[in-house]
């Protein structure tokens, strides 16, 4: 791990300390240090031969519901073993300190809520929740007959994870709330996202269009980088705690 200290610009610290409203968009990169594979990095183990974008689609589920269900069972098991990392925890502290704070996540792993974040907009759903694929209503428990996917106890339709698949609409209320938060933000953070999947990827642009200071925290360049006022190149689990510590030292 690169141990060079992360330099946090004093100007950014001053801006963050006096910001009235802050919004953060996170992607798979913030959960990478919790051991959850990012979406486009190598799919480890059994799934190395599948392109995740061919599994997370209604067509894939239609074609092979068992395969898609088992893929999510594998991901749910991965997530259940993961713990929030210092990056998630730093955002909990930021929410405590900023007068108005909104956390918008594309992640479906539920780690922000497990870390203690409260105002979390889950744009792409949550892998831990299961819904009926026909009724689109949450199903909390079902009879395990060994059939995969299991069936809805109400209508007998296949169950599926409560996540947004490619080609599906995002939950309208969540997207609207995210757009409003981006427009109101004085500082907008884009953390650990490759910023290629719409409509989430347009939120940083929307924030800048409405006058926000844009900060990107990522290991690599993304389409957001050229527009960012500050680019903090490093792991979210190191950069976010350093930023929060510099802005709100524990003794303040
Ligand atoms: P990606 O896998 O596309 O991108 C992960 C980003 O995190 C990359 O830019 C990495 O450089 C960065 N990254 C990796 N490790 C990091 C670390 N420790 N600290 C900071 N950054 C790190 O994941 P997303 O951008 O989240 O949508 O993908 C967006 C959406 O595409 C996902 O929500 C999913 C996928 O299709 C759906 O499933 C609908």
Compose a concise summary of this entry:
This protein is an alpha/beta fold.
Description:
The strands form two sheets. Strands 3-2-1-6-7-8 form a six-stranded parallel beta sheet, with helices on both faces. A two-stranded antiparallel sheet has the order 4-5. By secondary structure, the chain is of the alpha/beta class. It has helices at residues 10-18, 29-32, 52-55, 58-63, 65-81, 86-97, 111-115, 172-184, 203-209, 236-247; strands at residues 21-26, 100-105, 120-122, 125-132, 159-163, 187-191, 213-218, 230-233. Helix 7 links the parallel strand 2 and strand 3 (120-122). Helix 6 (86-97) packs parallel to helix 10 and helix 8 (172-184) runs parallel beside helix 9 (203-209). The longest helix has 17 residues, at 65-81. The protein is elongated. 2'-O-acetyl adenosine-5-diphosphoribose is lined by residues 27-29, 32-33, 38-41, 56, 106, 124, 164, 166, 192-194, 197, 217-220, 222, 235-236.
């Amino acid at each position: 791990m690169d141990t060079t200290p992360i330099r946090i610009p004093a100007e950014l610290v001053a801006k963050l300390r006096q910001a009235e409203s802050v919004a953060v968009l996170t992607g798979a990169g913030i959960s990478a240090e919790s051991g959850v594979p990012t979406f486009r990095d190598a799919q480890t183990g059994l799934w190395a031969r599948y392109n995740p974008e061919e599994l997370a689609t209604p067509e894939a589920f239609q074609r092979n519901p068992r395969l898609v269900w088992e893929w999510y069972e594998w991901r749910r098991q991965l997530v259940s073993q993961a713990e929030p990392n210092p990056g998630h925890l730093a955002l909990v502290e930021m929410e405590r300190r900023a007068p108005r704070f909104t956390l918008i996540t594309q992640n479906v792993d539920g780690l922000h809520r497990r870390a203690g974040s409260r105002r979390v907009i889950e744009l792409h759903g949550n892998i831990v929740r299961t819904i009926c694929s026909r009724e689109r209503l949450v199903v909390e428990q079902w009879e395990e007959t060994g059939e995969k996917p299991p069936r809805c106890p109400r209508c007998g339709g296949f169950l599926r994870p409560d996540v947004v698949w490619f080609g599906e609409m995002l939950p309208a209320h969540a997207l609207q709330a995210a757009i409003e938060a981006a427009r109101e933000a004085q500082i907008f953070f884009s953390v650990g996202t490759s910023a290629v999947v719409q409509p989430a990827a347009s939120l940083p642009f929307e924030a800048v269009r409405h006058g926000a200071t844009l900060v990107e925290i990522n290991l690599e360049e993304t389409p957001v980088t050229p527009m960012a006022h500050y680019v903090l190149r490093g792991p979210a689990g190191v950069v976010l705690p350093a930023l929060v510590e510099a802005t709100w030292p524990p003794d303040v």
